[in-house]
Amino acid sequence: MTNETAQLNTWRNVDGPGHECPTDDEVIGLLKRTPVLYGSYQGLNEEWKRRFLDFCEEKRTLPLTYDPFFKRIFHPDIHPDRLSLFISSILGMKVRVVRVLPNEDSVLGGDTLLIMDLLGELEDGSLINVEIQKQGYAFPAERISCYSSDLVMRQYARVKGEKGGAFTYRDIKSVYVIVIFEKSTGGFHKTGDAYVHHGKVKFDTGLEMRFLQEYFLIALDVFRKIPYPKKRSEQTAWLSLLTADNPEEAERLAGEYPEYSWIREIFEETAMLRQKPEEVLGMFSEALKILDRNTVTYMIEELKKELEETKEEAEGAKEKAKEAETEAQKAKTEAQKATAEAQRAKAGMEEKDAEIAELKRQLEYYKKG
Question: Which of 121, 103, 5, 59 is CA-nearest to residue 271?
Answer without folding.
Answer: 59
